[in-house]
Amino acid sequence: MKIQVLKSKIHKVKVTEADLYYTGSITIDEDLMNAANLIENEMVQVLNLNNGERIETYVIRGQRGSGTLCLNGPAARKFSVGDIVIVISYASMDFEDAKNYKPSIIFPDENNKI
Known about the structure:
By secondary structure, this protein is mainly β. The protein contains 2 helices and 8 strands, in the order E-E-E-H-E-E-E-E-H-E. It is about 10% helix and about 45% strand. An 8-stranded mixed beta sheet has the order 2-6-3-5-4-7-1-8. The radius of gyration is 14 Å and the shape is globular.
């Protein structure tokens, strides 16, 4: 049996941009992506601590070291610059393997740095 488990989490990161007219997705600083074990085009959930919104989208690699976290497309209507969010990805794995799996969880500072 396979189950979905937490794979990656960026906990309490600040939205730096919201680009309504971009095609869609979330742009994340490559340093944050690497630390959280996320890859480009991976599906993520984004949870907004300021207003309770929760969306699914995919990751676009942002400039390394920039601290960028930009909600693109329609998500820009649900997230504002300065909002604090949690970015989560999941993995499907065998039930027994999942018992020993350790997700990558990071806690960036107020400037979105590790």
